[in-house]
Write a structure and sequence with these properties.
Helices cover 44% and strands 11% of the residues. By secondary structure, the protein is of the alpha/beta class. The strands form three sheets. The chain has an eight-stranded parallel sheet. A hairpin with a 2-residue loop joins β3 and β4. α19 runs antiparallel to α21. The radius of gyration is 26 Å and the shape is globular.
Length: 636
């Protein structure tokens, strides 16, 4: 589908309801080629007269959008923007969202703090999908008065920026609020000497201390003051080691359940005094009841007295991005209800630990999650976009997953044709091509790519070119041709639509992987065979080309980052590129020495490699940068 096949439309802002004007004007500025004043264009008008949802009425070139909420109006506009041809033009439609809260949460704490213009660009696309809530996950990346090390050199948001984002979200019919942390996940601030007395263990605040709650009150005030919303996610997930560090030394042993609930009472009271409804992630209750500290342990037992003492005006958020079975989500929703709470359910689009979102797996987990939510009549859901292990991923690559999430929320099941059309409407991009880019990780040797969250593309890029730690995971598998074809396909797609230019990044990554994925294997084979001619050919061919393409990838990635994020945090990823470039140079020089006779051996090529991860047949593991870059645990 090209832009020339899409019917332009005209929206007279003067005749538009006041509440929609600013939002529609922002969308017109984003997609100027889709709006016109030409007399042949579809004339779109809006009426807020629908009892629920939206209904689109068409009479010739006149289109009337009847809507109940602002978000319904923008959802209808997104659908119209994706229509093409006379058949689609003639079709009327109506929809009602299955959920009251339908949102997205974006991680702005793992190196990547989105620029405000990037947040707005995501908001516009999400509004056209029909999402009505936008959440930023900020561990320390928001200013807290009197706390200069809070978000220090991390690109933190100012109150003015957050207030501006909240106003912008409102014009698009979206509620906005933050997700912060008030117990665990606070290693970023606890690393500084200024907070030496605030920690229990490395990542966890010490509970029960007066100064802890003085700090938390400052945090909650700073995190809520810029927003209209009266909601706040106060975190409290994955507080591993709670009560076992400095707390234990000061207070002696206390049951972790009691420490947790006592801390929650104090945090809830701070929120309540400010008129804020607090939301916590629910995993700690299930973990503390598990012998293996597993959130999803079916043997987990939460004592009755603990369940009874959970504050009833706190909302529990059940997060789950892993399971592919409808039945599992159903059971865990029921377990939350057994605690006496109606959960908010958070799924995920797999941006974390990947360079491009793992869309096939995200579709599978989202389908199972939302089918269960609808069957159980859950009213509040959102999708999370995390940035674990560096936020290397292009955050916009999650958009097809968010579109799938939205389509599921507006129907009993997802219509593939409508999904593609609506993605074209909301993002002005080619759904199939963007999903194709997920083949960076969805490689042919996987027996069920839709059930795999492997990040093989990541570990093939970052694994040390001399050590090859992950080579045994791909024994007998050749991926070179796969990545060559993928690069060519993505480059062709990148030329078709302006928004598809983002595919240049995964296309370049695929080109790099085509050269690197088997280079060490081929070099070792030639080395062990004593075939110096072959070693020289590989060194002067694939290795030389690889070094040049890695440089190009680094520059693509840097450009993409600086366009979307604050510059703070990029140093983490750039150091990875620096390490890879240095090791490729070292490999080249070592090979020269071997060929020139200055060195008679390459010890790294003589070590028998062991398989680190024993995954099921037809599957591959997910690994972190530090795991594949070196075999050494201590990296100094």
């Amino acid at each position: 589908m090209t832009n020339s096949e899409l019917r332009p439309m005209v929206v007279d802002l003067r005749a538009c309801p006041q509440e929609l004007r600013s939002g529609i004007q922002a969308i017109q500025l984003q997609y100027p080629h889709r709006f016109t004043n030409h007399k042949s264009a579809r004339r779109v008008t809006f009426l807020r007269d629908a009892p629920t949802g939206l209904a689109v009425e068409k009479k010739g070139r006149d289109v009337v959008i009847h809507y109940a909420r602002k978000t319904d109006a923008f959802r209808a506009l997104g659908r119209l923007l994706g229509e093409s041809g006379p058949k689609a033009l003639a079709r009327e439609f109506s929809e009602t969202a299955r959920f009251d809260l339908l949102g997205v949460m974006v991680d702005c704490s793992r190196n990547g703090v989105l620029k405000t213009e990037t947040v707005k660009a995501l908001m516009r696309r999400c509004a056209l999908m029909g999402l009505n809530t936008f959440i930023l996950y900020t561990e320390d990346t928001y200013e807290v008065p009197g706390e200069p090390f809070f978000g220090y050199l991390r690109g933190r948001y100012t109150p003015e920026e957050l207030r501006d984002l909240d106003a912008y979200a409102d014009t698009l019919g979206m509620e906005m609020f933050l997700s912060i942390q008030t117990l665990g996940h606070l290693g970023q601030i606890l690393q500084w000497p200024a907070y030496a007395g605030y920690g229990d263990v490395e990542e966890v605040l010490i509970a029960g201390e007066k100064k802890t709650y003085e700090l938390i009150e400052k945090m909650i005030s700073a995190a809520t003051a810029p927003f209209r919303s009266k909601r706040l996610i106060v975190g409290m997930d994955e507080a591993h080691g709670l009560g076992t560090g400095r707390y234990l030394n000061l207070h002696g042993y206390q049951r972790a359940f009691d420490i947790f609930n006592g801390h929650l009472d104090r945090v809830r009271d701070i929120c309540r005094e400010k008129g804020i409804r607090s939301i916590i992630w629910s995993d700690m209750y299930f973990r503390l009841g598990s012998q293996t500290n597993n959130y999803y342990d079916k043997e987990s037992a939460i004592p009755a007295d603990v369940a009874a003492s959970i504050p009833k005006d706190v909302q529990l958020a059940y997060w789950d991005y892993y399971h592919t079975e409808f039945e599992f989500y159903t059971e865990w929703i029921k377990r939350h209800r057994a605690l006496g709470f109606e959960p908010l359910v958070a799924g995920g689009v797999w941006t974390w630990s990947h360079f491009w979102a793992a869309l096939p797996f995200s579709f599978t987990t989202t389908d199972a999650c939302l089918r269960a939510c609808k069957a159980q009549k859950i009213r509040e859901v959102f999708a999370t976009l995390w940035g674990d292990d560096g936020m290397e991923c292009d955050i916009f690559s999650a958009l097809p997953g968010l579109q799938f999430f939205a389509e599921h929320a507006y129907a009993d099941s997802v219509n593939p044709e409508l999904l593609r059309a609506n993605f074209r409407g909301s993002c002005d991009a080619d759904f199939h091509a963007w999903v194709k880019a997920s083949e960076i990780d969805s490689v042919p040797c996987l027996s069920a790519p839709e059930k795999s969250n492997t990040n093989v593309g990541k570990w093939l890029l970052w694994q040390d070119p001399l050590l090859g730690l992950m080579e045994p995971q791909l024994a007998g598998v050749s991926l070179r041709r796969h990545y060559e074809k993928l690069s060519v396909s993505l480059l062709a797609s990148a030329r078709k639509l302006p928004a598809n230019h983002r595919l240049l990044f995964p296309a370049q990554l695929a080109k790099v992987l085509s050269l690197k994925c088997e280079l060490r294997r081929d070099l070792v084979a030639a080395y062990k065979a004593g075939d110096k001619k072959r070693v020289k050919t590989l060194m002067e061919g694939d290795l030389k080309n690889l070094r040049a393409e890695v440089d190009q990838l680094w520059k693509y990635h840097r450009e993409m980052w600086l366009d979307a994020y604050q510059p703070f945090g990029w140093e983490v990823i750039e150091e990875r590129y620096g390490g890879l470039r240095a090791r490729l140079q070292s490999l080249s020089e070592r090979l020269h020495q071997y060929l020139d006779g200055d060195s008679y051996s390459i010890p790294e090529f003589e070590v028998k490699l062991e398989k680190i991860y024993h995954t099921a047949a037809g599957n591959l593991p997910r690994a972190t940068y530090s795991r594949v870059a070196t075999a050494s645990a201590a990296r100094w």
